[in-house]
Amino acid sequence: MAQTTSIQPNTIDAHVGRRLTALRHERSLSLENVATKLGLGADVLANVEAGRQRLGAVLIQKAAIVLGVSISDLFAGATIADEALEPYARGDSIWFSPEFVRLARCFVEIDDPEKREAIVNLVEKISARPNI
């Protein structure tokens, strides 16, 4: 049976749960029917819809398919809560910053290992971080 994640739900998860409920009702689908298609118990889906549990990425994708919507439809109208922005404020989520994404996209396009090494050396020099 599919699993929900062990991460505590936040306001975006609660929003997705409300959207699941609304979209399910619009399609006249029962909680049990959708839960079965997702490989969940009805009690688990009820908790997701109530914002007490969250779905992982694979189940969000499956839910979109089951409901006949895009993944973005499940997030439609959501606003980023302060709690969702907290990691950025602490600076420990550089992995999701626009600059990091741009750098990573460019870096993977470089086939020459010597050029890759030169870029790594340059970044280490700029950051004053020694070779790791």
What does the radius of gyration come to? 20 Å
Figure out the total of helices: 8
Q: The biggest beta sheet, please? A: none
Shape-level CATH architecture of the largest domain: Orthogonal Bundle
- CATH topology group of the largest domain: 434 Repressor (Amino-terminal Domain)
Low-confidence sequence ranges = none
Structural class: mainly alpha
Q: How would you briefly describe this protein structure?
A:
Helix content is 63%, strand content 0%. It is mainly α. The longest helix has 16 residues, at 11-26.
Characterize the structure shown.
By secondary structure, the chain is mainly α. The chain has two domains: 72 residues, lambda repressor-like DNA-binding domains (434 Repressor (Amino-terminal Domain)); 35 residues, no CATH class. It contains eight helices and no strands. The radius of gyration is 20 Å and the shape is elongated. The mean pLDDT is 83.
Structural descriptors:
132 residues, 63% helix, 0% strand, 434 Repressor (Amino-terminal Domain), mainly alpha, 2 domains
What's the arrangement of secondary structure elements?
Elements: H1 11-26, H2 31-38, H3 42-49, H4 57-67, H5 71-75, H6 82-90, H7 98-108, H8 113-127
Helix pairs in contact: 2-3
